[in-house]
Amino acid sequence: MTTLESMSLAGGPPKSLKNGQKLSVFLGLSSLCILLLATFGIDFPNQGFWLSTSLSGILLGVIGFSWTSYKGEPMGIKNHGVQFKSISGRGLWAWALGIVLTAFYIVLYFYPEYLGLVQDGPNRGLISLFDPLSHALSGNPASQWFVYGTLYTLAILAFGIKFLWKYRHNRYQRLRTLSVMFFQTAFAFIIPEIMARLNGDLPYYDLKNIWPLNYYNFERYRVNAFIDGGDIGLGMLIFGVLSILVITPLLTYFYGKRWYCSWVCGCGGLAETAGDSFRQLSDKSTFAWKVERWVVHSVLVFVVLMTTAVIYSYLGSDNSKYWLSKSQFLLGVGLLLTAVFAWVMVFRRKALKKDAIYGAAGYMIIILGLLAIHGFSDAKHIFIFSSESLRKTYSFLIGSIFSGVIGTGFYPIFGNRVWCRFGCPMAAILGLQQRLFSRFRITTNGGQCISCGNCSTYCEMGIDVRAYAQKGANIVRASCVGCGICSAVCPRGVLKLENGPLKGRINPREVLLGNDVNLMDLANQNSDTAY
Amino acid sequence: MHIVIIGNGISGITAARHIRKGSDYKITVVSYESDHFFSRTALMYVYMGHMKYEHTKPYEDSFWKKNRIELRRARVTEVVPASKSLILEGGGALNYDKLIIASGSQPNRFGWPGQDLKGVQGLYSLQDLEALEVHAPNKKQCRRAVIVGGGLIGIELAEMLRSRDIPVTFLVRESSFWNGVLPEGESAMINEHIRQHHVDLRLGTNLKEILSDDSGRARAVITDQDEQIECSLVGLTAGVRPNIGFLENSGIETDKGVLVDRYLQTNIPDIYAIGDCAQQRIPIGKRRGVEAVWYTGRMMGETLARTLCGQDREYKPGHWFNSAKFFDIEYQTYGWVSGSQGRDPEEQHFHWRHPKELLCLTIAYEGKTRKLLGINTFGIRLRHEVVDRWLTRALSVDQVLERLREANFDPEHYRRYEGDILQAFTSNTEHIL
């Protein structure tokens, strides 16, 4: 189909910007320039003023652009030209943005001094520009993380407003977006800073950032600080443990992993707002799905091993130092993993594909083997590697490169959920819960699918939604973050995200609804045989 | 056993897939249109830039080889039942043991003067989409488009062209959009919505003639009101008809489409027809003989596949359903809701429309028995299974209104209107009583 390939060159929607859009781009970019100038060492006399000008200019730029784009347009899905536009169709602008973002992440993670971070001295450059805001919130000077956090929140708010306009006809989308905007601003940005002001000894804690996404939550310095932080500190530590072991499975059982991934999580928040223009870029091939399953679950195993090793390394051999001793802790981890594994294999075996069973069993043997090796030896460090090198490797490979540089820097190339799909161990855990015991599913509306492919195209997680919908089968996938866009873009009202009983949740239909009522009944009886 | 399928649309491909599931027969699918199966209904989104052509393919390209479904890109010029073979364009033949004709439709042309000029086209095939890219790539090269024929494809074409800001004049023969199918309230709402999208909607207007420029390209149309409208593109969207010209001398009995019995078999053994191109000898219930609809094509494909795999199965479509989208308004229909023309006097309608939003619903029922006949919704999604069950159990209109909530399929957190609807119905009924 050579002619079709050339279509984006021949035609496409009107590319020229409206005047309001031009004005907004000018406002936004010149405000961004202030930050850039600061980065390159220009000293601004009145930092508070210039920072406020810059941040509000960026915010107004994005809002103005969205307003001129959507005002006067009838409500509804308007993805006109998404595939033709340079920024959303992997054109020049997409590559340029990808490179700039990637460079920013590399500097942020590995060379913060270029942003003006000074150890043991007053900040310079960009970071010093943020000092007034940081002082106002926490009383401390800014760090590169404060700068990042501020810009991150700004991006979620500004593009969140754009998203609210774009999907103003859709209440699910509006509520969900207000939710991520709230959690980012309050929980990730303001509350931890204020807590730092109230009690400087408590570790910085974004309460919605749950281990293993927050892989460093149980490291020695944090645990010590929690314990030393009195009742509040201890409460936070207990909350951190309960989050992953109790709260998370419960909420996922009732609502699916979406309660976290597309309503609360900060990574998800950025992906859904600033990353919305890139959702169509995710890879839908079955090959990508296979890679996803292996990679994301391997990261999960990695983080479990790493965290176990790190905690183990600082626990005492008896209970004098901490409530748990080394061996009690290891035994606990071993028992928990065995219990989960056994439950899955006994009750949910049918729901797993063969490679999932092999993978799970393989990893289980490795983990228990490592624990056993430890039990029989008196090694200083658990496992083959030292806990410190495990931690460093994880922090570098997963915490920085995967989640930041690739996960966000490559938004315009690989789509907005690369990290969530391939790398996030939290998403992996929630995904297992969602697949194996959750009331959540995307219901397919009988025989109404026309196989158009809008759902699959706009699925940011790369799920081939259509493959299920056109069979009349419900979509129950570990990776689904429940963003609801498939349902929004469907031109025939085929998909509905909902929570309901486990019975009949997964329903491979032999006969499509429509032909012959008796056959339909037969199909529905058969549909309850598997989970 | 070698099964040859002419046409790789939804009917032919559904048949092929299910034959593969149920047998080890050799399967060959012949198509002139494209290398692989794609979703015809999604062509509009390719032009609008929502998707690329690649996205419209429901199966990865490796699927066909893996499932041993042979794909052949060729045009069939003749079917020779005597030798059980097909003659292909440019020479070559293909033998079959069983033949499935699933050759789809082609746009209607009613002998308008100028209908074969450059820049005059329908919108059905991949080639039509390519032609549209040539004739109407943007608003500079296409100063105005005139669309002739107010049906589902016409309004889709209007939406497509408007997505590129091309001015559109929409000639509709009827006095209100699609009112042969839609009741008056619904049709009126769609008229409004079409105009909201800045389409120059001309109701009760026919095409008389298409004028040519010096190079043989359409430059204007003349309407039956003798108005001349300058344009660069003329979209002919006055329905489709079965694409069966190649069967002319084959001995296969045809009328509008290929005539088939309930087992989808033609008058000649081992030759079957499904989808848009098939015509039931005796129409099923209130259904038309030829049903050019995605869903029926798919059902026929699956039904025939079962028959060919040894489980004889009659084509027995359940309750009628269909759906469409008119610009921003989703439409679903279940059962039979007649349009404003030619309605049985026994058929009563309850119509509700939201005072501000573009939402409405019509329930058709029998006046005497109050039995449910069908439901149309605009901007409200209904659950197929539930409405299907209501139709099967022949609920009364009163029962349906009380249970309307059960059938809602709108996304979570959407505003619900069952209360308003029931209230409107109750006050309406009281008024009548």
Detailed description of the structure:
The complex is a heterodimer of chains A (531) and B (433). With 531 residues, chain A is mostly helical. Chain A has 3 domains: 17-73 and 102-198, no CATH class; 199-439, no CATH class; 440-526, 2-Layer Sandwich (Alpha-Beta Plaits). Chain A is built from 24 helices and 2 strands. A two-stranded antiparallel ribbon of chain A has the order 1-2. In chain A, helix 14 runs antiparallel to helix 17. The two termini of chain A are 41 Å apart. Chain B contains 10 helices and 25 strands. With 433 residues, chain B is of the alpha/beta class. Chain B has helices at residues 10-22, 43-48, 62-66, 126-135, 152-162, 184-196, 294-308, 384-393, 397-407, 418-432, and strands at 2-6, 26-31, 69-73, 76-80, 85-88, 93-95, 98-101, 105-107, 120-121, 145-148, 168-172, 199-203, 207-212, 218-223, 228-230, 233-236, 240-242, 258-260, 271-273, 278-280, 321-326, 329-335, 347-353, 360-366, 372-378. In chain B, the strands form 7 sheets. In chain B, strands 3-2-1-7-19 form a 5-stranded parallel beta sheet. In chain B, a hairpin with a 6-residue loop joins strand 23 and strand 24. In chain B, helix 1 (10-22) runs parallel beside helix 7 and helix 9 (397-407) packs antiparallel against helix 10 (418-432). Chain B has 3 domains: 2-106 and 241-308, FAD/NAD(P)-binding domain; 120-238, FAD/NAD(P)-binding domain (3-Layer(bba) Sandwich); 321-432, Enolase-like, domain 1. Chain B is globular, with a radius of gyration of 23 Å. Chains A and B meet through helix 2, helix 9, helix 21, helix 23 and strand 2 of A and helix 2, helix 4, helix 7, strand 21 and helix 8 of B.
